[in-house]
Design goal:
The complex is a heterodimer. Chain A has twelve helices and 13 strands. Chain A is α/β, with parallel strands linked by helices. Chain B is built from 14 helices and no strands. The termini of chain B are far apart.
């Protein structure tokens, strides 16, 4: 393979690939053969409860920890053999951000830029700080959790990385700032960046991610387009007929289960998949009231985890 | 590596000034006493004779307290331990402090290799120790011109080079232990314990020859003290530097290979003997 061909592969390969990635902390298996593909230029939401392996995955991708087995590739490079080259192209925000308390935000940014071997792009950093309403001249120790998070976001974004690895990017931010951060991430994507982020805020993932991966006990159990995943979710509907109706009529509709009935006029239904069949079945009867609850990513997420014990540690 | 060195040295500057100026003040205070010792030679010798012979032996004789090297021997005897406190605390914290606070994650997510981070911080630690000793040396050298000691500034450099070598050995030991043990405190405590044991074993070996083999494997035994003004023992000096280099290399090797802990984690994943795990489970 010549050098030009190799360079082209590096530039065209998916942003993140992991194959059979395993990592244990003593007796605790944090990753149990994780297979993951994140394409360039997409926004990928990585979901899972505490201890599912989200942070461990990100830390493997940055070579902060070494996997016990399997392989990982970031922007076409192996992070274990080319850690500096990978990190030069990545912006990272840890789930628990710790900064030097005595330094101002501006000094923190200057330090991180020095580690990158380049001067701070103050035009970019100041613009980001302004949008996030962050005062860069206050010591970090005097900043609230949300404002510290903003410093972390600025340092992750200011060098315009090709790949953003963000662990709970809106943690500690107020709703207005959360929206601003989502806008910044969409703009980063529009600029060609790939965004890989973990979050517990399902509405945020739903609003931002084009694809989501759900990790459960160290294994990826689902990867799908966000809209398609929600479309496959279970909906709930409550229908009220003008006259009593035989419930068997509704029970026979594919994907529909009658959960409760009241006086043969009010039915609570569970609908799997599309609503089309139900609507057609209802058309045969006079309906006085129809109420449906929109399925959310949270419903999908909870469906994967409802039988699990609640893990207590972050991995 | 340059940026790491520069920023780490900036972090050290408060400690350089505090330790350096305090020890320099000690020198400015102590050296003028030499002439007083000479004036009171007879009574000083009487005073020394009044000490129990064991105490005299512990400090290596001290019979010639009115000679420049004897005087400096007495005054510099504890300097490696005093400055060793700085070295042990700074060495153990060099990487482990940021790691335990969770800051190392973000630092190492930037394009800096672990080797560069390690090398830059180690170089800053050595430079900080050197800077403190330079201030201290100035404090001991400035009064020389007004003293009848007859020691030049150049001669005064030699005991401080010996101190530097001993202190670096303790500091790099603490650094190595911080890469091996589960917490910075344990590393500092263990290295500090070794330092104090080394100091006492060196003294006690003068009283009990059976302790000499133990004293010989610890760094303080190779501290020359005031006698270095007559010539630095280059074998001892180079030997201590080689030990420091060995500890540093081991620490760097370990840092290159191990996982970076998340803030608050206590374990580096080192194998714990099975009986200890059982014991812990039983006690819980």
């Amino acid at each position: 393979m010549n050098l030009i061909h190799a360079a082209a592969l590096v530039n065209e390969s998916p942003a993140i690939i992991t194959r059979h990635l395993t990592k244990s902390y003593g007796p605790v298996e944090a990753l149990r053969g994780l297979d993951l593909d994140v394409q360039r230029g997409e926004i990928f939401g990585f979901l899972g409860p505490n201890g599912a392996g989200k942070t461990t995955t990100i830390r493997c991708l940055l070579d902060l920890i070494r996997p016990d087995g399997g392989t990982a590739t970031v922007l076409g490079l192996d992070p274990q053999t080319h850690p500096v080259a990978v990190r030069a192209r990545v912006g990272y925000l840890p789930g628990e951000l710790h900064l030097e308390g005595n330094h101002t935000g501006r000094r923190v940014l200057r330090y991180f830029s020095a580690l990158r071997g380049r001067p701070v792009a103050w035009d970019v950093a100041n613009a980001l700080a302004e949008r996030l309403r962050l005062d860069l001249d206050r010591p970090v120790k005097n900043l609230s959790k949300g404002n510290k998070q903003k410093v972390g976001l600025v340092q992750a974004l200011m060098h315009r990385p090709e790949l953003l690895l963000l662990d709970e990017p809106t943690s500690g931010l107020d709703p207005l700032m959360q929206q601003e951060v989502l806008a910044l991430l969409r703009e980063a994507k529009a600029g060609g960046a790939t965004v890989f982020f973990c979050s517990h805020i399902m509405s945020e993932v739903e609003a931002l991610a084009e694809r989501v991966g759900i990790i459960r006990q160290g294994r990826l159990v689902e990867v799908a387009d966000t809209a398609a995943l929600i479309g496959r979710a279970v909906h709930h509907a409550k229908v009220q007929f003008r006259n009593p109706v035989d419930g068997d009529v509704l029970d026979g509709v594919p994907g529909v289960t009658v959960l409760a009935r009241d006086d043969s006029r009010i039915f609570t239904l569970q609908v799997e998949g599309e609503m089309d069949g139900l609507i057609k079945a209802l058309a045969a009867f006079p309906v006085t009231h129809l109420e449906t609850t929109r399925a959310s990513l949270e419903d999908v997420f909870l469906a994967y985890y409802q039988d699990d014990d609640v893990p207590t540690e972050d991995h | 590596m340059g940026a790491v060195f520069r920023y780490t040295l900036i972090r050290f500057r408060g400690r350089i000034l505090a330790w350096g100026l305090a020890l320099a003040a000690l020198g400015l205070f102590i050296i003028p006493f030499y002439d007083l010792y000479l004036e009171q030679e007879e009574s000083m010798l009487q005073l020394l004779e009044a000490y129990p012979p064991e105490v005299m032996a512990f400090f290596g004789g001290m019979a010639d307290i009115t000679s420049p090297e004897g005087f400096l021997d007495g005054q510099l005897a504890t300097l490696p331990v005093i400055l060793g406190i700085f070295a042990v605390l700074a060495g153990s914290a060099l990487l482990a402090r940021d790691e335990e606070s969770g800051r190392l994650d973000l630092i190492l997510a930037h394009p800096v290799s672990r080797l560069a981070l390690f090398g830059g911080r180690l170089a800053a630690f050595v430079a900080a120790t050197f800077a403190i000793l330079t201030l201290c040396w100035l404090g001991f050298s400035i009064p020389l011109s007004g003293s009848s000691m007859g020691v030049s500034w150049g001669q005064m450099t030699l005991p401080f080079l010996s101190v530097l070598a001993v202190v670096l050995a303790f500091g790099t030991l603490a650094l190595l232990l911080s890469m091996l043990l589960s917490s910075r405190r344990r590393a500092a405590g263990t290295a500090g314990g070794v330092m104090v044991a080394s100091f006492f074993l060196s003294g006690l070996a003068n009283l009990n020859a059976d302790l000499e083999p133990f004293a010989r494997i610890l760094p303080y035994e190779y501290f020359q003290g005031g006698s270095a003004i007559n010539g630095l023992n280059l074998v001892w000096f180079a030997g201590l530097l080689a030990v420091s280099a060995f500890f540093s290399a081991l620490a760097g090797w370990r840092f290159q290979r191990r996982d970076i802990r998340v803030g608050g984690e206590g374990s580096l994943g080192l194998a714990r003997p099975a009986f200890l795990s059982r014991l812990r489970r039983t006690s819980l």
